[in-house]
Amino acid sequence: MREEKIMQQVLRLAEKGRGHTSPNPMVGAILDRNGKIVGQGYHRGAGMPHAEMEAIKDAGRMADGSTLYVNLEPCCHFGKTPPCTDAIISAGIKKVVYPVNDPNPVVNGKGARILKKHGIEVKSGLMAEQAKKLNEAYFKYQLTGLPFLNLKIEQTLDGKRTSSPSLTESLLSNSDRKETLRILSADKEIAGMRASRFFTKGDLIKYLRSLAAEGVLSVIVKGTDGWGAKILKHRLVDKICYLIYPEIGGRRPALEINLGINRISEAWKLSDVHYQNLGRAILVSGYINYN
């Protein structure tokens, strides 16, 4: 029970890095010694010290003989920062607890093996699903080379495009708009792109890979743009977000697309659906399950 509570704190620490760490994952770390937290930290941004380093620095000499809780397998390679495994070994940490292996092929189990080789106890699997969800964009990139795609659709109650940007601005405060970005976990929002430049699914994937190569691991695409409809039709969307405004009327549908689905039984379903009030709008978000 205590380990789970500490890991929950670790995940909350990691969350503080949201929007700043790409192309790295969000990571938090806590050092516990004899039932007392002696150090903690989180990864603040790409190129900055990793969470493990921050926690070890925070703990000082108290790190010796402690247990490290971190939400991703410690890295074991040189990048912009030195390997965390070296720091863990040097600090005298006796045990490392983490939920899931780092999917990056240069790590993926190697970090754990190095720690075990130096006599450090390693435990994995605690709160694995929560940890994967926190870094879903990072996991998708490492496994597919593509960014995590969020489709955002703003519409009236009758499914039409909102009548004007000034209306949506009046209905959503700055904090509401920031909360939308937090929920969608995006590094970049793409709007106003001409879908005609993407003739095939292959064209789209090539463009998305180029974004990921630039360190963009998560993207928001506006559904009212032609290319937003294309990525949905090609089943490239991971998460969808509807912002529904309290007005009726409009001439054009919010999402102009024909998916060729004629029966409700064949409709694509959303999972892990969340509903939230944002100002006077209602936010509905979920993950698409393609049939």
Task: List the main descriptive attributes of the protein structure presented here.
single chain, 291 residues, alpha/beta, Cytidine Deaminase, domain 2, Dihydrofolate Reductase, subunit A, six-stranded mixed sheet, five-stranded mixed sheet, 23% strand, elongated
Structure in words:
The chain is an alpha/beta fold and 291 residues long. It has two domains: 1-135, Cytidine Deaminase, domain 2 (3-Layer(aba) Sandwich), CATH 3.40.140; 145-289, Dihydrofolate Reductase, subunit A, CATH 3.40.430. The chain has ten helices and eleven strands. Strands 7-8-6-9-11-10 form a six-stranded mixed β-sheet, with helices on both faces. A hairpin with a 2-residue loop joins strand 1 (28-33) and strand 2 (36-42). The longest helix is centred in the first third of the chain and has 14 residues, at 2-15. The two termini are 38 Å apart. The mean pLDDT is 87.
